[in-house]
Amino acid sequence: MEWQYIVVLLAVAAAAGWVDAVVGGGGLVLVPALMLGLPNLPPVTALGTNKVASICGTTVAAVTYARRTKIDWRIAGPAAALAVACSAAGALTASHIPAEYFRPAVMVLLLAVLAFVVARPNFGVIVDEPTRTWRRRLAAVLLAGTVIAFYDGVFGPGTGTFLIIAFTALLNFDFVASSATAKILNVGTNLGALLVFAAGGHVLWKLGLAMAACNILGARFGARTALKRGAGFVRVVLVVVVVAMVGRLASLYL
């Protein structure tokens, strides 16, 4: 790679870390950048290299959230442990399932998320008490730790956003609490997928670690910004990011 492309990728990695720490979706920023910068790179290697940067950024964001806000570990702990296995299973199938199969479905889900959030101005911003019955906790653990984690291993774009919406809808969390819990889950999904990609030799370690350093800076700043600005700010960023993801997926699909 020419040094100009490396500089751009490092800058994109930092931006992806910020976005991912606030509302998720960093993979949809960084993976296309890798594919553009390295046009001959196999998609599975782009996914694997992205995971190196992503797991570092999400870990820093998770630690930042855990230090400054209360996390329900009865939900985050089991779901993260389950996510490691399910994300690994998704990564094992990543090279066998064309990404084109996922794009239309993901676009529909993102549009549904956008319509739901826009139609309910108080969703994730004004909440009474979190709803944490054992049935809802179980549903959140299973949905986040299996379905969404498997999707993250296979394809990934929008995983953090889907986790935030799931925790907000099922447990009545505000967006900041949901984002904090989502980061714990993201560490598990990234770890499971990275182990599989690394074992298969689908990681560019030098580039991945360089991007990881920048991703960490962006993630740390993003988590602090979300905690400082509150749920209303996260809601605005969520809407902007979802619109951007829909547009980006549409351009790839069309």
The fraction of residues in strands falls at under 5%
Give the SSE order as H and E letters: HHHHHHHHHH
Report how far the terminal alpha carbons are from each other. 28 Å
Please, how many domains?
A: 1
Share of helix, binned: over 70%
Number of strands: 0
Taking pLDDT < 50 over at least 5 consecutive residues as the criterion, the unreliable ranges are none
Structural class: mainly alpha
Largest sheet: none
Gross morphology: globular
Radius of gyration based on Cα positions: 17 Å
Question: What is the residue-mean pLDDT, rounded to a whole number?
Answer: 84
Tally of helical runs? 10
InterPro entries: TM_pro_TauE-like, TSUP
Family: Belongs to the 4-toluene sulfonate uptake permease (TSUP) (TC 2.A.102) family.
Pfam family, one: TauE
Protein name: Probable membrane transporter protein
